[in-house]
Amino acid sequence: MVCTILVLTFGLMFNFPAKAERLKDLAGIQGVRQNQLMGYGLVVGLDGSGDQTTQTPFTVQSIISMMQQMGVTIPVGTSLQLKNVAAVMVTTSLPPFARPGQTLDITVSSMGNAKSLKGGTLLMTPLKGADNQIYAMAQGNILVGGVGASANGSQTQVNHLSVGKISGGATVERAVPSPIGHGNTIQLELNTADFSTASRVVEAINNKFGAETAAAVDGRVIQVKAPMVNDQRVAFLGALESIEVTPAQTAAKVILNARTGSIVMNQSVSLETCAVAHGNLSVVINTDNAVSQPNPLSNGQTAGTANSNISITKEGGKLLMLNAGASLADVVKALNSIGATPQDLLAILQAMKSSGALRAELEII
How far apart are the first and last CA of the chain? Predict the structure, then answer.
C-alpha cells in the first residue's frame, strides 16, 4: 500500500512579494505577558462517577483535611467510600494588567480515576503562580463537553469527560506588578529573532516619531523612548503598534512530518546539482547553463540562463521533468507521481541535506 504524501508548496509555486504587517503582529512589549496559574481542588456532586477512593488515597486525605478545617472531626480508621468526589487540577492564565475582581475562565482536569466530571461543582480552590503566591480563587459549576445524542435518542456519542471548563470561574485577588510604567524607555521583543527585521522596525519607528527614538539592542530586542506620563505612554504605544513594517525574508526551511508525509517549505528553498540513489529510486538534478547572445547592433546585453533538469527513475518506468530553476517542489511532485512513500522522501531529503545540495534547514517532526 502506497502512502499519500501531502505537499504544501504555495511559497514556491507562487512567489508573492512580502506584505507589510502591523508591528503588534511582529513584536510584543517586554513585561506585557500572561502568567500561568494552577491549583489543586475537589469536585463534588458527581453522580457516582468520582474517584475510587481505594485507589486514590490523596482524595481521601484532601476530604479529611477539608472537613477538619470546617470543624468536623472524622474518627481515625474510618473508611470513606465517596463516589461523588474527585480530585482535580485547576489551570488558567492571568492576563496582563489584570486587577482584583476580574474574572477568568478556568479548566478543571481530573487527576484521579474519575469517570466523568459532568454535573460536578468545584469547591473554592486557590490558584497560585510560579512564586507560590495566591493570585486568584476558583469555584463554580463545571461544564463538560463531548456528550451528544441524536434527535430520537437512539445514538449517544461520548468523548472526553474528565476535563471541563468554568466560564468566569476564577476571581483575581492580586495584581501582578508591570514594569511598563517605569522609566523613559520600553523594550520591544520580536516574535522571531532577525537582524534585518529588527533594523527595519527601528527605521520605521524613527521615521514616524523622529530620529533616535528607537535603537536595536540585538536581533530580537529594540529599545524605544516613550513618554513618562501614563496616558501619553498608552497613546504612544497604541500608535507604535499600528506601524506597518515589511519583515525580512525568512531563512530557507523545510518541515517534514514523518508520520503523515506532510511537507511544508518556504520560498527560500533551493537545490544544487546532486544525484541520489535510494532503493529502487534514483534522483538526478543538474543545471545546464546557457548563454543568450543578442543580434549585432541591437544594443542588447549578453545574458546567461540556467535550465535545471530533474530526472527521477524508478524500476519499471522513468519520469523526466524539465523546469527553469531547480526547486524542491518539482522533486516532491515527481516523487509523489511515481508512488514514493514518506520514508523514501525522508531518506532522499536527508541525503540531499547531508551532501549540501538542499540549501535549507531540514526539520523533522
Answer: 23
- Joined grid coordinates for residue 362: 531540514
CA–CA gap between residue 20 and residue 219 (Å, rounded): 19
Check pLDDT > 50 for residue 302.
no
- Residue 179 is classified by DSSP as G
Could you read off the pLDDT of 69-121 as tens digits, one per residue?
888 888 777 777 778 899 999 999 999 999 999 999 999 999 988 888 999 99
Query: 251 with 207: CB under 8 angstroms?
Result: no
Lowest mean pLDDT among 136-145, 198-207, 219-228, 313-322: 313-322
Given its phi and psi angles, is residue 293 left (phi above 0), alpha (psi -120 to 50 degrees) or beta?
A: beta
Cβ atoms of 136 and 104 within 8 Å: the answer is yes
- Whether the CB-CB separation of 105 and 122 falls below 8 Å is answered with no
Q: 44-58, 71-85, 205-219, 233-247: lowest mean pLDDT where?
A: 71-85
Question: Which amino acid, 237?
Answer: L
Task: Report how many helices (DSSP H) and strands (DSSP E) the chain contains, helices first.
Answer: 7, 24
| Residue of 34, 36, 40, 31 whose CA lies nearest to 129 | 36
- pTM, full prediction: 0.69
User: Mean pLDDT over all residues of the chain?
Assistant: 79
CATH, range 183-245: 3.30.70
Which region holds residue 55: left if phi is over 0, alpha if psi is between -120 and 50, else beta? alpha
Q: At what angle do helices 195-209 and 230-241 cross, to 10 degrees?
A: 120
Q: Which amino acid is at 181?
A: G
Q: Cell numbers for 302, please give them.
A: 549578453
Map out the domains of the chain as residue ranges.
35-172, 183-245, 251-294+301-364
Q: How far apart are CA 261 and CA 332, in angstroms?
A: 11
Q: Residues in the chain, how many?
A: 365
The sign of the CA dihedral 229, 235, 237, 243 is: negative
- In this structure, what C-alpha cell is assigned to residue 200? 527595519
Task: Tell me if residue 239 falls in helix, strand or coil.
Answer: helix
